[in-house]
Design brief:
- This protein is mostly helical.
- The longest helix is centred in the N-terminal third of the chain and has 39 residues.
- It is globular.
- The chain contains 13 helices and no strands.
- 42% of the residues are buried.
- It has one domain.
- Helix 3 runs parallel beside helix 5.
Length: 300
Amino acid sequence: MPGLLGREAVYLWYYFTVQAEQIAGYYILGICLGSVISVFGKAKIHALLTAIQGKKLDVLGLVPASLIGIASPLCMYGTIPIAASFSQKGVEDDWLAAFMMSSILLNPQLLFYSAALGTTALVVRFVSCFVCGVSAGLCVRYLCKGKRFFNFAGFREPENHDTDPNPVLRLIKNIGRNIKATALYFLIGIALSAAFQRYVPEEVFVALFGRGFGLLMAATIGVPLYMCGGGTIPLLMGWMQNGMSMGSTAAFMITGPATKITNLGAIKIVLGVKKFILYLLFVMVSALMSGFVIDFVLKL
């Protein structure tokens, strides 16, 4: 038994190190570039949304609102106070819905991480998140009929931690906070991926996460399994190598961040119970529709 356990430990360590070597560079790049955007570009990115509200773009404003949400480096508890300040400045709820939905699903750092999954997965993630943001804005615009959708009472601008007068130190401190927030989840993701690769046969992956039924499985498992963006990239990389379809991958990448427990808590505060249920329904439908289009229409 000790010999068997030792051999299994060696196998798991092998899978762990291989996975770590494949993705470590993307993780480091994501951390560094994400911090650069957060420290030096965050204010300019957020200023864009208020700058375009006076240009009378109407429904077309959902496009830049969704793109700005993707470019925003804030987590959901930082995004909601920013959205509250946008609302006070007159930004309409449909634009805010597009901004917040895409911000939940994607940010610059996670986008850089996703490059480890390959060009196709990177493009799929960006486009599907952008479309979900625009779709959320359209739903709020045409289903709420001019009524207020969000309740931002009690929210204020998030505290700015990047206050060091020295720009180099400001960047280094931001990188340190990023590593502290994501490194453990990143290592857990690699460890889980190694365990899946060692003990779950490839044919099981194909049966669970292939085209068709795999869409529902991927969308469903994204709810309890999503830890953080960096932590799920190693899992997705391993699953894709073992037969996970691109549509199932997209479904997981939508339901995961959209139903992350901290995001759900923040969303419920500004939506209330009834609208929160509609939000969950929107997320599941968006994930399944995205996966279906990718697997059966585009056949990626």
